[in-house]
């Protein structure tokens, strides 16, 4: 199982950024896929989850209405569209897969929101 994030970078407050998570070694539709982030000096928190049960995506309160999680099963890739970015969104963003009772993580991509 391998998860590779991409799309991070520097963006001004109010701007947008799109992250991708390319998965290999498994089919993303068979697991629970999430985006998590870790800001400097803080713990890692899950910000968005997309299920494989037909229920809607889940978001933590701080990003709801600004972030959108999605996946492309044909490309075996998950995405996170981030709009109206704030300085508090600055963090390393990780892709997470919950698969058959095990948790897998990508290596992360840095997102910095600053003017």
Describe this structure in words.
With about 120 residues, this protein is mainly β. It is about 0% helix and about 55% strand. A hairpin with a 5-residue loop joins β4 and β5. The chain is globular and about 40 Å long. Strands 2, 4, 5, 6, 9, 10 and 11 form a seven-stranded mixed sheet that branches.
Continuous helix count: 0
Largest sheet: 7 strands, mixed
What structural class should be given to the helix and strand makeup? mainly beta
Distance between the termini: 37 Å
Query: How many strands?
Result: 11
Task: Record the SSE blueprint.
Layout: E1 2-6, E2 9-11, E3 17-24, E4 32-38, E5 44-50, E6 58-59, E7 67-72, E8 77-82, E9 91-99, E10 102-105, E11 109-113
Parallel strand pairs: 2-11
Antiparallel strand pairs: 1-3, 3-8, 4-5, 4-9, 5-6, 7-8, 9-10, 9-11
Question: Nutshell version of this structure?
Answer:
This protein has 115 residues and is mainly beta. It contains no helices and eleven strands. It is 0% helix and 54% strand.
Task: Please give a handful of descriptors for the protein shown.
single chain; 115 residues; mainly beta; seven-stranded mixed sheet; four-stranded antiparallel sheet; 11 strands; 0% helix; globular
């Amino acid at each position: 199982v391998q998860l590779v994030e991409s799309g991070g970078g520097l963006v001004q407050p109010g701007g947008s950024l799109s992250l991708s998570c390319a998965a290999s070694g498994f089919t993303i539709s068979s697991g629970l896929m999430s985006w998590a982030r870790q800001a400097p000096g803080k713990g890692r928190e899950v910000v968005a989850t997309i299920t494989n049960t037909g229920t809607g995506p889940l978001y933590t309160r701080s990003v709801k209405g600004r972030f959108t999680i999605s996946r492309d099963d044909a490309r075996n890739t998950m995405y996170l569209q981030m709009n109206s970015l704030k300085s508090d969104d600055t963090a390393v963003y990780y892709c997470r897969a919950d698969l058959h009772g095990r948790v897998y993580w990508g290596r992360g991509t840095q997102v910095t929101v600053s003017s």
